[in-house]
Amino acid sequence: MIKSKICGILDIRYPLFQGGMAWAADASLASAVSNAGGLGLISSINAGTEAVRNEIRKCKELTDKPFGVNIMLQAPNAGEIAAMVIEEGVKILTTGAGSPAQYMEAWKAAGIKVIPVVASVALALKMQAIGATAIVAEGAESGGHVGELHTMSLIPQVADAVDIPVIAAGGICDGRGVAAALMLGADGVQVGTRFLSAEECTVHPNYKERIIKASDNSTMITGKTLGHPVRSLKTPFSTTFAKMESDPSVTPEEILAFGTGALRKAVKEGDPNGSYMAGECAGMVKKTEPARDIVEDLMSGAEKLLRTASDRLEK
Fold this sequence. Notes:
- This protein is 43% helix and 15% strand.
- It is an alpha/beta fold.
- Helix 2 runs parallel beside helix 3, helix 8 crosses helix 13 and helix 10 runs antiparallel to helix 11.
- It is globular.
- 48% of the residues are buried.
């Protein structure tokens, strides 16, 4: 069985995180992944602070295994969420879209392990310096907000630069991706897109159908002109968004207004005019299945590959 130091640090069976996907990662999915031996994560973008509190409490009822919360630090209620997770006794946090520096002292005093998501070596070093327990290094193959570097080049550079555990993310969808990440120097992986197809994931059926029907070139990046690039499936919404970005007569304010609430529309309503965030590996997702089966396939597939790699080279 594949284990690494992050397993001992977080008391999890497998070095596998489920991505804290906005609006999609709730107690149902997080508890299922945690019960399967990974680390389930609840998104803090979930209809307000009290709604997230309720998801945390639900998750405690559904699992006695470790789980965490992902906090988007640019959210208007980030400060409220930062205090609420202490009140609720959450012990593991991942963070994104900013620096958690202002909250670290309080979180550390509460015994919380903080694992920021980064997209560069410079950010990884900054997070290590402020006391991060580990980091998630996320390549641009991932769904949602992305950086410039891709997983294959990002992971070894980050792993060489820091002394804390590195969790690889971006384009990881099966055992091959897990094995590759470990060989690149990661201590574990974070997987998002594949868990969108989990039976326990409560996204709208239309969202799951779009993921399962996706091909290798079904995603695109929008938002670069606004300074917030996002990878999502090609839909009427994303193609219109891209056209607005390339039109000099359209203001950034108009583009932002067009995009407001688009992810929620996709996740909760299955609206074709919503934003269906997904990684490049969406074309590898073939069916809906229990989260436990996804976890087992990822980890057993990687273990088998790592054991037989030398045989393949000899052939």
